[in-house]
Structures are given as structure tokens and as C-alpha cells.
């Protein structure tokens, strides 16, 4: 209506007054810019009132990179379970809490479905972020920015919202569903899934199949990981002679560390070449061992030659790598850098089970069928990192890393981690159908 009135005025006055004509043209330009921008913002703004989005943002706003906030996160989940009417339990097999909420199936004798995620997130440098990393701010494109938006607070809320729908629709599910929330995944699971799978409490869950964190992908195919690469965290201590900072002796710790780095990077370069050769393969991550030195410490004072350098390496083994061979190689790196060096393994996973992704796995068949019916492609991949799924697979429980984060730039452990609100909500639709199918897989 307003635009029509403008054109009436434009035709009436522009014939006789060039200045008026110019003013009206400028006004039209401003009007169109403001209108278009308003439509772009408003396209997503209404999602902020969606209950699932509100819950997702509330969960993201809990800074669980800090141990003191884990209890706040636990209280969040206790409240959700009470609100939905799900019985829950909290276990602490090694100190840190593990939350389990249950939707009981009509046939509890059937092995259950575990829906796993972790509450803890990695730390952040807030100065690097576009928006505060625990504000869960949604921008004009509908992207919600927060640590945990991809890894992995999203899937926990999607599990919960899918179960809400199934409950509200009175859908009968033969198999029981367990939502499990870990609080110690990012630091290696020593107080989480690694020990939980060996407890009586875990055995009573009678888990027959599990979903865990999946992969973020810029494509439109959902990726399901069936094996994780084994994670090693290694602390190297490289030693050498010390002295006054004005001297230049041979054999300092830094000299030896330089030799060590050259040796390590010679091997790393061979693995990068393999990575590049398999870059287009969904199972390419299986072929190479990744190496990154992420922490280096050393020195006592600016004018004292350091006698000791410590370096912590993050290594993810190729799926066919023999741990003994890798250990032998690591020892050779130390010898090349001198005779007084040492190594400590902070994490040393030597086993990583594999889940079948073919017709022999009825749960895989169910997921493929469900997603195909929704017009979605599912593709098996090797996970380049390691997750709690490894400990489940190592117990003989078929487990898939599964997530619905398609058309999304992967930013796990990176700055500006985000998830688009429509991608998140679509994920709830997908999980609702996937869980319905999984819970109806007949007894073998």
C-alpha cells in the first residue's frame, strides 16, 4: 500500500519538478533497503520463541568448559527429565556425574537404544569470537553461535525433543530409549564412558545399539561414523645443557628439541601426503596418522638457558597402525634428540571396535530405510577423532556416530562454532523418525 502511494506521488510531481523527483528516488532507495533488511532479519527472528530453540540456547549458555559449572548442567537435565516425565538416575563411577533419563519401551526385555552425548565442552579464547561464546547469539542468518553448538549440546536437545514428540503422539516403542549425558568426554573419558561401561549400572541398561556424536559436514549427505581413530596424548621431555643466557653451548635442550621436531615433522609430512591423496574418500581418515604438537613449555628465566623442554603431542592412529610399531617409532625420535630424554603417555588407546554398516546390522538397515524415505542420503565414514562411541564398540555394542549437521562449516574446537536454527530444527524431525525406526527393530 505504501509503495503504491509512493508511485502515485512520483508520477504526479516528477513531471514538473526535477528536485522532487530526485528526493523521491532517494527515499525509494532507503525504503527498499530498510524493507529488505527487515525481511531478512524477521525470517529467523520468530524462531527465538520456539520452545526447542529456547532450550537449546539455554543449554548452550551454561559454560561447561569449567568444571564448577557441571553441576549447573546436571541440574538443567534433572529439570528437563522432571518436566517431560522421564525417570532418571545420576551415576558417578569415577567422580564426575553421568546422567541417564529413560523412556521405557513396551517390551523392556528387548535390548535398549542408547542416545549418548557429552555436556562438557572445550575451552575458548573469547577474544577470537565474533560473539560471546556462551551467549548463544543468533545472527541475521539464523546462525546460533556458541561453544557446544556442534560438539555436542545440539544432539542432546534433539534427542530430548524427539522423545517429547513421540510421547505426545502416544507412539508405542517396543525398545527402551536411554538419553545419556557424559561430563568427561573432552578430557579423555577417564571419569566418564571409559569406566561407566564396566559398571553394573551400565549393564542394567541392557544396551543393544547406540548413537553418539556424529560429524558436521558442508555437504547435504548425513555422515555416520562406524569406527574412531585411536587417540594418543604424549608428553615428551627433551633435556640438554644449561647456562648463562649470553653463552651458546652445544647440546642445549632447545638444540635437541629442534632435532626432535625435524624428525617428527619428517614423519608428519609423509602422513599429510597420504591425507591429500585420500581427501575425497569418506573413509580416507583411516589411512593416515595425524600428529600435532599443541603445547610446548620450557625455561626458567629470560637469561637462563633452558635445560628442559616439554612438548605434548596429539596423535590419532591410522586404523591399521600397529601400536607397537608406533611406540618403536616414538622411541627412535627420542634417541635422535639425545640420550637423556623421556616420554609419558597421557592417553594411550590401543583398541577401537568397528560397527558393521551393511545388511548384517538391522539398526543400520533401519536408519538407511528411514532416511531414504525422507529423501536423505546416509554415508558411512571413519571418524578422524575419537569419541565415547569407541568404548561402547569395544564392549561389542554396535554404535554409530550420527548427527544431522549438514550444510554447516565444521568448527568443532574452533572459534565461532555455530549451528543454523533451521538445521537444528530439521534435526529434531530427523531424529524423531530415526528413533521410531530404531525402537521398532525386531528382536534378532
Automatic annotation (TrEMBL):
It is found in: Cytoplasm. Zn(2+) 1 binds at residues 118, 151, 213. InterPro entries: Aminoacylase-1_M20A, ArgE/DapE_CS, Bact_exopeptidase_dim_dom, N-acyl_aa_amidohydrolase, Peptidase_M20, Peptidase_M20_dimer. The active site is at 120, 185 (proton acceptor). Its cofactor is Zn(2+). Binds 2 Zn(2+) ions per subunit. Residues 236-338 form the Peptidase M20 dimerisation domain. It comes from the Eukaryota. PANTHER family: AMINOACYLASE-1. This is N-acyl-aliphatic-L-amino acid amidohydrolase.
